[in-house]
UniProtKB/TrEMBL annotation:
This protein's record includes keyword Transferase: yes
BP GO terms, sorted: methylation
Origin: domain of life: Bacteria
Gene3D superfamilies registered for this protein in UniProt: Vaccinia Virus protein VP39 (3.40.50.150)
InterPro entries per UniProt: Methyltranfer_dom, SAM-dependent_MTases_sf
Name of the protein described by the UniProt record: Class I SAM-dependent methyltransferase
Cellular component GO terms held in the UniProt record: cytoplasm
Claim: Transferase is one of the keywords in the record: yes
Assigned keywords, A-Z: Methyltransferase, Transferase
Organism: Candidatus Kerfeldbacteria bacterium CG08_land_8_20_14_0_20_43_14
GO terms for MF: protein-lysine N-methyltransferase activity
Methyltransferase domain sequence ranges: 44-147
CDD domains per the UniProt record, alphabetical: AdoMet_MTases
Length: 200
């Protein structure tokens, strides 16, 4: 099973080329865009958790959302801030570990595009507790993770829809889970689940 530490994420952003990272998406992920439209959310406070390159945070800020973007990697945050400055997008960036977060509640929406699926089973309680604390009642977690339809075992953990239902069974309502892909610079695109989860 994969073991990814904050130290190894820092190495990824210090030595890797951002545009070549498997999760890189220059524009807003279509699944996120569609979910916001379906939920009729066009304003409010969004947390882009594990923002990495910062592209999702920048796109959301340019749509008018009040965006906070965090990452465990200092270098990721420095590079994302540079992107936001170039694109003149108002994003509040912070180095923060979601498993030991210092963020102040409440957010209307939390975006997790590729973060949760890197955590091991014994980190789930910490993650879920912090998501629950940070979201406003009725707020949404938009979660994109590897699907169990993705072949092989290298990289992130894979999830089935029923596992997601089970993980978020207390304090949340799972609104929908769709089979999709992680569209990035490399094909074939990894198979993913996109989950709309509401805090009850
Ligand atoms: C697969 S990348 C996705 C990046 C970004 N969400 C995107 O879609 O472009 C996962 C990101 O989560 C960050 N991350 C990993 N563990 C984290 C943690 N405990 N707290 C906050 N961010 C974390 C990594 O540094 C990395 O940038």
């Amino acid at each position: 099973m994969p073991m990814v530490t904050s130290h190894s994420w820092e190495n990824v952003y210090q030595y890797g080329q951002i545009e070549n990272m498997p999760w890189y998406s220059a524009g807003l992920d279509k699944d996120i865009e569609q979910a916001l439209q379906e939920l009729e959310i066009s304003s409010g406070k969004i947390l882009d958790l594990g923002t990495g390159p910062g592209t999702q945070a920048v796109a959301l800020a340019k749509m008018g959302f009040e965006v906070t973007a965090t990452d465990v990697s200092e270098t990721a945050i420095a590079k994302a801030l540079k992107l936001a400055n170039i694109q003149e997008a108002a994003v509040v960036f912070e180095v923060d570990d979601i498993l030991a977060t210092h963020l102040i509640p409440f957010f209307d929406v939390i975006i997790d595009r590729g973060v949760f699926h890197s955590f091991s089973l014994d980190e789930h309680d910490e993650y879920i507790g912090n998501i629950q604390r940070l979201l406003d009642v009725g707020g949404y977690l938009l979660l994109k993770c590897f699907s169990d339809k993705q072949p092989g075992a290298v990289g992130p953990y894979r999830y089935s829809a029923s596992q997601i239902q089970n993980i978020f069974k207390t304090g949340f309502k799972v609104i929908s889970i769709s089979e999709t892909e992680f569209r990035g610079p490399h094909q074939p695109y990894p198979k993913a689940l996109f989950c709309i989860i509401q805090k009850t």
